[in-house]
Amino acid sequence: MRVLVVDDDPVSLLVAKAAVERSGHECLTAPDGDAGWRLYQDHRPHAIVTDLMMPGLDGLALCRAIRAAETDSYTYLILLTSLGARDD
Questions:
Q1: In terms of DSSP H, where are the helices of the chain?
Q2: By the 8 A CB rule, do 43 and 67 touch?
Q3: Any idea where the Response regulatory domain is (predicted)?
Q4: Selection from 83, 25, 73 nearest residue 49 by Cα
Q5: Which of 66, 72, 73, 88 is 20 to 30 A distant from 41 in Cα terms?
Q6: CATH homologous superfamily for 2-80?
Q7: Terminal-residue alpha carbon distance, the chain
């Protein structure tokens, strides 16, 4: 499975990449939503793990763009946040 991890925090990005690869999956990484969008278009990963708050295209906007672009495939989306409120 090809997994794209998108996070503007370099440490979180490395930790997530290591976890994905330890699980036996191919991992692509992007430091922000704009780069994540480009990698999605180029590689069509099976799953995306993305941070909510990032410069440029944020995680929610990235998820919306992916859903709008999908026609014949499905990408699993996991949206992460360090925000602590239930509404977040």
A1: 10-22, 33-43, 59-69
A2: no
A3: 2-88
A4: 25
A5: 88
A6: Response regulator (3.40.50.2300)
A7: 29
How buried is residue 61: exposed, middle or buried, by Cβ count under 10 Å (0-12/13-18/19+)?
Answer: middle
Length of the chain, please?
Answer: 88
pLDDT tens digits for 12-29?
Answer: 999 999 999 999 999 999
The pTM of the full predicted model, rounded to 2 decimals, is: 0.91
> Whole-angstrom Cα distance, residue 14 to residue 57?
20
Report domain extents, the chain.
2-80
Per-residue pLDDT of 60-83, as tens digits, reads 999 999 999 987 889 999 998 877
Per-residue pLDDT, 82: 79
* Mean pLDDT computed over 35-47: 96
Q: Which of 57, 66, 59 is nearest to 82 (CA)?
A: 59
C-alpha–C-alpha distance, residues 46 and 22, integer Å: 17
